[in-house]
Design brief:
metal-binding; 58% helix; zinc ion binding; five-stranded mixed beta sheet; Zinc finger SWIM-type containing 4; zinc-finger; mainly alpha; 50 helices; ZSWIM4-8_C
């Protein structure tokens, strides 16, 4: 396209835009014609061109051209001395060179300023650090056609941008231009001198600087005196103060080496947040340069791109087959988007664009060049005003969307080289706010150019590309043209939606019968690499700001974010429309578009981020009555949108869920149209990929959160989406408090659509908290819903014992039921089979439900309290029958105060003992019985436990040792009869010699206690050689003999000492018998004969025992 007329840069608020001119206007005098013409020449012509065009240029004219050739706006100076532009009044960061330079200027640090032709020089004094002297810096600046072309400063600052001293001198020249001593280029002064004057001038110059220039002066003199030298063949002589030549490039000074070095260093620190932020600031600087139509924007981007491609991590990631980090991927995305803007420049020369495309093509072919994430098409269909939903199969649609070609992050920029600005219809859209059919006569052609209302349409290219064109217009400083094209695109989207709704109505019955649909848009617009919806929204919202947006020098320095005020700005040629309305409409259309989730973790994460960024933009806008009406209309259209809308009645299985968008709409619509707000939010609760994965009636393979990694490897962000779904449900539950109709509707939607027990639990907790405020009576309906959600979690996870939060959930459930009342508590007790495991029911539900605190909370009378206790006892007995191993003791404990229930629980234990209840559990219950004062029942259970027990000869540390000793002590305390009955059980169950001798010794220390008949305590302890202990003594002796032979079979010398000690204990047991000494001697003799080969051991035996 032919670029619109260039706009002159506006002056910085700190000073007049053009030195001297403001004073003249302030006095009411028009600016002199000489100055007006000198300004234009100074902006556009190199001084060499002026000299060639005119044979003689008067000195006053030369001076005015030289005067006006210095930059006139502080904005450019600021742009090249800070990471972002902000008027000086807003500058607060002392690290920024522009801020420091401004402070130096205001403190009077600049002096001895001299302008010789196109060269400015001066001194800048800077205070030293505490205890150090003041420093003096000599600064020189060359300029041409209102651009600084080179700088030099004694501080030797190595940075991307101009140092503070260059800033101070430049600002001095802009603000105090009339005070600067001005001279013509030095060659003009020299031409006025005769030979003597020239010789004197040269000699004085050499004398003043002989140490620096003398060798150069001598070399030049020698060459001049040599008749055939090269210097004598050239006409004239160079003059550094005479400005640039005609062929010289006219651009601002940019230190390429420093840009490359800084980008390289920042990329090497790519893992740090600060490095990413600085690189983004450099991208913002490129955009700022593009907006100022500064050619250095593309130049700086080229330098940055080359360094990005030289990042050594690219090759490493490619070699390892690993993806780059998210921060790095985002930087590459921004880089690719910037190149699209550059290539789509509306005013660049064809050769410039060709050069960029050549570079991009070369980079695109590099193996290390990152690929674009996601399965977005590079051959997107153009906007169609009459697109119809296809009832075709989902598989066909997926095949259509598949792409096999290699697309790098530069692919979009290469593709952007194809669109041109020369289309006549596009030119007329950009040129006028009132473009309509009457201006063009015929509207024929292969596609419509206006909608039925006569507003322009733009169907010339795919929608993302058209939006990139809008962004390019904004980026290159054409805001009005960007708005006009954005308006045409909105008109096109509206017309397309109208035709979509009409075509959907014709096929609605067929699609509803089918129950699912294919995606009509092969790629989504939110999360797209070109960010079409974001581009349109930002362009439209920018026109509605009440104050000019300024870029912070350090956006993340901690300053508080202000809510940006917007106002309705009318759309020319569209009565009743405003750009704010269009922005809201476009954002909702993009967010509500039914679209498939793209491939890849990063692409999916980008969809989420893009949604959040768009909604953040919308949340900045205060909704007035006009915008609320737009919101209501768009929400209704989304509900009726069929397969084109994510809120439609039928969904593609892998559609991007609408939870985040719906939450915004729900919150915004609720005060104005609650019915519409709830209908929209309830429709958005769907998560189709889970609904089709778990058909109705089919058991879920695993209801736990790790489902994402097992069942849905492609849905990398499923966990995040489910969390957003939960947040939407929570918002509805909170808002519906006090409204039973909507509460039950929300509950039904939650039960149907949320499949994560952790999220359901969170919803239940949130609902319970909302229903029970500290300063108001509870909402019983909401409490009931909280309880119902909790019961659903219990049912979902009943057979999943690995879920670690079940115990927490069970306790919470009892607490919630207590808040509702005793009937709710008894209901969960009566229906425990479908909700809890026996252990949970017996140890948590029954116990917690009957604690003193619970009973106080319920405030029950005696009859109701007894009813609750009876329910808990029944539950405990049922649990004990189902799982006696773990629930018998809790049941006995709970039934203590009711004789019949306690007897029933005891009988359950006895029956379970016959059915295989383990000895450990029987001993535990037996000890409980003794503790409760029931020693005979304890004895009975102990004998049952001993009947199941077997302790081998080498199990000295068996877990049941203490239980056996306790059982023996119990039987001894009961009397001789019980003791006699337990001895055979001990002999049969225990084969460990030390343990048997220990029991025998304990029983011989004191007389047995009272028996069941109440007989008198025996006068003296029982003898080990008489009944009933003689049987135990024989068993102990036999055990020692057996154990000794067993140990000697594989004994090693290092265990000889232990064995001798073992024999010592055996002798003590042998000696309890009347003939024990003889038995032990025979036993030893037998050992000596049998194991006589173990001479050392037998020697030890003889030494110890003879």
């Amino acid at each position: 396209m032919d670029p619109p007329a260039a706009k002159r840069s506006r002056g910085c608020p700190a000073g007049p835009e053009e030195p001297g001119a403001g004073a003249a206007r302030g006095r009411g005098r028009p600016e002199a014609l000489l100055d007006l013409s000198a300004k234009r020449v100074a902006e556009s012509w190199a001084f060499e061109q002026v000299e060639e065009r005119f044979s003689r240029v008067p000195e006053p004219v030369q001076k005015r051209i030289v005067f006006w050739s210095f930059p006139r706006s502080e904005r450019e100076i600021c742009m090249y001395s800070s990471l972002g532009y902000q008027p000086p009044e807003g500058e607060h960061d002392a690290r920024v060179p522009f801020t420091r330079g401004l402070h130096l200027l205001q403190s009077g640090a600049v002096d001895r300023v001299l302008q010789v032709g196109f060269h400015l020089s001066g001194n800048v004094r800077e205070p030293g650090a505490p205890g150090e002297p003041e420093r003096l810096f000599h600064v020189s600046i060359s300029f041409d056609r209102c651009k600084i072309t080179s700088v030099s400063c004694g501080c030797d600052n190595r940075d991307l941008f101009y140092c503070a001293h260059v800033v101070a001198l430049s600002l001095y020249r802009i603000r105090h231009a009339r005070q600067v001593e001005l001279r013509l280029p030095i060659s003009e002064t020299l031409s006025q001198m005769n030979r003597d004057q020239l010789q004197k001038f040269v000699q004085y110059l050499i004398s003043a600087h002989h140490t620096e220039v003398l060798p150069t002066a001598q070399r030049l003199a020698d060459e001049i005196l040599l008749l055939g030298s090269e210097i004598n063949l050239v006409h004239g002589a160079p003059d550094p103060t005479a400005g640039a030549g005609i062929e010289d490039a006219n651009c601002w000074h940019l230190d390429e080496e420093q840009i490359q070095e800084q980008v390289k260093q920042l990329l090497s620190n790519g893992g740090y947040y600060g490095a990413s932020q600085q690189l983004r600031s450099m991208f913002s600087k490129v955009r700022e340069m593009l907006r100022m139509r500064d050619s250095n924007g593309a130049r700086m981007l080229i330098l940055m791109t080359e360094q990005f491609l030289q990042d050594p991590r690219l090759a490493l990631w490619r070699q390892q087959g690993a993806g780059m980090t998210d921060r790095c991927r985002q930087l590459w995305d921004e880089l690719g988007a910037l190149w699209v803007c550059v290539v789509l420049s509306p005013h660049c020369k064809p050769e410039e664009r060709a050069g960029w495309l050549q570079l991009l093509g070369r980079w695109d072919k590099l193996d290390v060049c990152p690929l674009e994430e996601g399965n977005y098409s590079f051959d997107s269909p153009r906007l169609q005003p009459a697109s119809a939903p296809s009832p075709g199969s989902e598989e066909e649609e997926e095949e259509t969307a598949a792409t096999t070609s290699r697309h790098t992050v530069f692919g979009r920029a290469l593709q952007a080289g194809e669109p041109r600005w020369s289309d006549g219809h596009l030119q007329r859209i950009l040129a006028s706010d009132s473009y309509g059919p009457s201006l063009t006569g015929s509207v024929g052609g292969d596609k419509p150019t206006f909608d039925p209302q006569g507003r322009p349409l733009w169907l010339g290219e795919p929608f993302p590309t058209a939006c990139a064109r809008v962004d390019a217009l904004r980026a290159h400083g054409y805001p009005r043209q960007a708005l006009r094209l954005a308006g045409a695109l909105v008109n096109t989207l509206r017309l397309q939606r109208r035709h979509q709704l009409e075509s959907y109505k014709q096929q609605k019955k067929e699609l509803l019968q089918k129950g699912s649909t294919c995606i009509t848009n092969t790629e989504g617009w939110v999360g797209h690499p070109l960010d079409p919806i974001g581009c349109l929204c930002r362009a439209l919202l920018e026109a509605c700001r009440l104050e000019e947006e300024t870029l912070a020098l350090y956006p993340d320095s901690g300053s508080e974010k202000r809510k940006v005020p917007y106002q309705h700005v009318p759309v020319p040629g569209s009565p009743g429309e405003s750009y704010l309305v269009l922005a809201l409409e476009v954002a909702l259309l993009g967010l509500g578009q039914q679209r498939a989730l793209p491939e890849g973790l990063y692409a999916q994460d980008k969809v989420v981020r893009s949604e959040e960024q768009l909604l953040a933009l919308l949340e900045e806008v205060d909704l007035d009555e006009r915008l609320v009406q737009v919101l209501r209309k768009q929400a209704a259209l989304l509900l009726e949108g069929g397969p084109f809308s994510g809120f439609g009645e039928v969904l593609f299985r892998e559609s991007v869920p609408m939870h985040t968008c719906a939450r915004y709409l729900f919150t915004a619509l609720l005060p104005h149209d609650p019915d519409l707000a709830y209908r929209l939010a309830l429709r958005a609760m769907r998560l189709p990929v889970l609904e089709t994965a778990f058909p109705a009636g089919d058991p879920h393979p695993s209801p736990l959160d790790p489902i994402t990694s097992n069942r849905f490897p492609r849905w990398f962000i499923l966990g995040h989406l489910e969390t957003r779904q939960c947040e939407l449900a929570s918002a509805m539950l909170t808002a519906a408090k006090g409204d039973p109709k909507w509460l039950h509707a929300v509950l039904g939607s939650i039960q149907q659509n949320i499949h994560s027990p952790a999220l359901l639990f969170k919803l239940a907790q949130d609902a319970c908290k909302t229903a029970t405020p500290a300063s108001a009576p509870p909402d019983t309906t909401l409490l009931g819903i909280a309880l119902e959600l909790g019961l659903q979690v219990m049912r979902m996870t009943l057979n999943t014992m690995t879920w670690r939060r079940r115990r927490e959930m069970v306790r919470w459930l009892v607490s919630c039921a207590t808040e509702i009342g005793p009937q709710a508590l008894m209901n969960i007790m009566q229906n425990w089979y479908s909700l809890f495991t026996p252990v949970e029911a017996a140890t948590i539900v029954a116990v917690t439900g009957t604690t003193h605190a619970t009973l106080l909370r319920l405030q029950l009378d005696t009859a109701r309290r007894e009813e609750l206790w009876a329910c808990a006892r029944t539950l405990a007995l049922q649990c004990a029958m189902k799982d006696p191993q773990n629930c018998a003791l809790p049941a006995l404990t709970l039934c203590e105060k009711n004789h019949a229930a306690f007897e029933a629980a005891y009988q359950i234990v006895l029956d379970a003992a016959a059915g295989g209840l383990g000895h450990a559990h029987l001993f535990t219950v037996a000890r409980y019985m003794e503790h409760r004062g029931l020693p005979l029942r304890a004895y009975k259970l102990a004998t049952l436990a001993l009947a199941q027990l077997s302790i081998a000869f080498n199990q000295d540390s068996h877990p049941a040792v203490n239980d056996v000793l306790w059982a023996c002590s119990l039987s001894h305390s009961l009397g001789r009869h019980e003791l006699s009955a337990i001895v055979p059980l001990i002999v049969r169950s225990v084969h460990c010699a030390p343990m048997l001798s220990d029991i025998l010794r304990r029983w011989t220390l004191s007389a047995p206690g009272l028996g069941p008949l109440g007989a008198r305590r025996a006068a003296k302890p029982l003898g080990a050689d008489r009944a009933p202990l003689c049987q135990l003594l024989d068993a102990a002796v036999a055990a020692y003999i057996t154990t000794s032979h067993s140990r000697l079979t594989h004994i090693s010398p290092r265990h000889y000492g232990d064995f001798i000690e073992f024999l010592g204990k055996a002798r003590e047991t042998f000696l309890l018998a009347p003939d024990g000494h003889l038995q032990f001697a025979q036993f030893l003799e037998n050992l000596k004969q049998t194991y006589k080969g173990k001479k050392k051991l037998m020697l030890l035996v003889r030494e110890r025992f003879g």
